[in-house]
Amino acid sequence: MFNKRLYLLVLTFAIALGLLIWNWNSTPGVFLKTSSFLASVDRWEMDLGGQWKIYPSLRQAWITETEQEGKGIDSPITGGEYGYLPSSKEFQVALKTFKIPAEWNARSIMLQINGVYGHCDLYLNGMESAHRIGSIVGEGGSERIQIPVTALNHGQDNLLLLELSAPSAQKATFLGSGYPDKGRITGRIALQAVMETSLENPRTQVTWEDAMARVQVDFQLSHHGFSEYGPWTVQGIISDGSAEIAQAVTQVHSDESPVQNVSLAFQIPDGHLWSPEDPYLYQVYLTVSNSRGDRDDIAFALGLTSLAYQDGLFLLNGKELPIKGLALSPEKEAELRNQGDIEAWLKECKEQGYNLIYFLGQQPDEYWLLEADRAGIGLWIELPGSAMVPAQRLPEPRAWGEWAKTASLHPSVWAYTSGIGLEYNSQPLVKAYEQEVSSVTAPIPTFNLNLTDEESRVGSWGEIQQPQETQGSRGGLWPAEKWVSVIWAVLLVIVAWSNLAAVNWRYKELQNKKPKRALRMAWFWQGLAMITRQMTLAGILTALLFNTEVPWAQWVPNQWPLWEGIRMQSPWLIWVILGSLFSLLRLLQVGVVAPHLPGAPDTIGLAAWLERRYFWNWTVGVLWALQAWGIPRSVPFLVYMGFNFLFLPLKVRDVHRIGGGYAAFLWVPGIILLIGAVVAAFRWEDIFYAVHMVQQSNWLRLILFDG
Hints:
Keywords: Glycosidase, Hydrolase, Membrane, Transmembrane, Transmembrane helix. The chain crosses the membrane at residues 7-24, 483-502, 523-546, 572-594, 614-631, 637-652, 664-684. Residues 198-291 form the Glycoside hydrolase family 2 immunoglobulin-like beta-sandwich domain. Belongs to the glycosyl hydrolase 2 family. This protein is α+β, with helices and mostly antiparallel strands. It is built from 21 helices and 26 strands. A hairpin with a 2-residue loop joins strand 10 and strand 11. The radius of gyration is 32 Å and the shape is elongated. It starts with a helix and ends with a helix.
């Protein structure tokens, strides 16, 4: 009779797991609008943003699009689907078909790709290494990649494939891993046709002599394989929108280098300062040309400011700048970009008295930088990968060098957060990291800030407020938990009472091949008690997973995507899967011991006999139900573990009295702990990090007693 119950339990687990896999919900993602801070009239451009085809692997993408001619797009075997880039959605492989216009044949083709979170390999017209045209590694990184002429199919369709894997920050963070091994692209993707020499990577530096602004513009001349066509005349103009304010000209001779650094110096008498009250912007125009008539140009906005941080205060243009900031979550940021509401939202924030927007866990797109410059509002940016990272795995600050140079063009960038929850017990590593970050981001100040701590988000410099959507986690994902816990507590009381009222039986009854009805009912209620105990533990853990508020919730989607992915699934399926899994593990633990006990009893029968010492389970269920009336969320779990240790001596005595040894019950838990220890050995930094964080913060108290 016991075998049928085992089969039913295995079948329940298999069905629930199959339903979870079949109905797995991924982050829906939204299409993100984006733009560039550089403009040009001499470059030809093709925007590759919009609809792409998404695949789970590079091979499936290539075979489906070439050998099967797209017939497998809707097939579950190939797994292809339509999606949009740039997007907040994570993916593994994206494919786009494009055709080069005939007039582009005489120009060099550049691929501009921004906002890459992860490791991105780019392939053109093939999936072998010979067809890889470049790689990008970063947390919001950008890259301009020259496409070899031989790699393009002129006059025919070209297939561009982007293969992404998890960003390094996802793996380096506390308890992070490479799974799911996906990345995302949140920025602009475009092709540009440029002449043999193009202007790249402009940077600005502003110094003041009384009212005169001295502006130095540094940039590069990039020669795309034809550097012998010099010399080049480089001209720069700064305009106020109606007239020329300053001009500079220089001539550059060939030095057989593919990249030449160039600087132009400008003087602006009575420079008009950029400020939140008066966000005045100049326009900078740069052109390069040679005697053959080749020409390239770029234009961008310039705001003249003087920003400093002294004695705990921000100083803008020599005046104290009290900060009143508003935190912006990644979800809200994606919503605003998707709807194109950035300009209106920034104006609304200013009307409410805010003068700064704090970006949580990611770098803002150029779209945000442009609109913030125009609106006259500051930006405080968390450098990605800096949250909850053990000191031994802190990111390499040089990776943010290009971003910091780009941000120098925007007067709205006021501050960076270089670390969140850093291990100050590991002072040498942290101090060296902070110094290197400061050198990369200078003159913009950097801070170690934790918005979950009231003392961190309020300082002498001002305060940063968290709106409703960024406070706590997105709790309440299992709204039925309240009434479910009450019903479950009632069921546990019924099961406990039924076991108390059932006929009393002993270990030797397990050898009874023809038990009477009363004994069969006792076995039924005892077996049900074992199942409901495992389901109680599973229910408590499911509630912790779906409905617990954690202080670092705003960083969870970026740092722990698997956690966030599970929270998007059905809590009912998670509960059933965990409950049946715990029940099967319990039966495995008992099954290892059963053959070595007197009479070699049936596994489920032995588990039912051992359940007599778990009569207390109904109290755990009642505590779970009482959470709606103020019982801390962690109490039921702690009580469950406490009762296990409290009754352990009685369980050991029961096994010894029937002539068995309790040590055999430790085999399965021991193997599980050994596997955990092996995994922990490869992540030993996380253990020390957790110890340091518990010593230095109140996070554990928040989770255990205020959750």
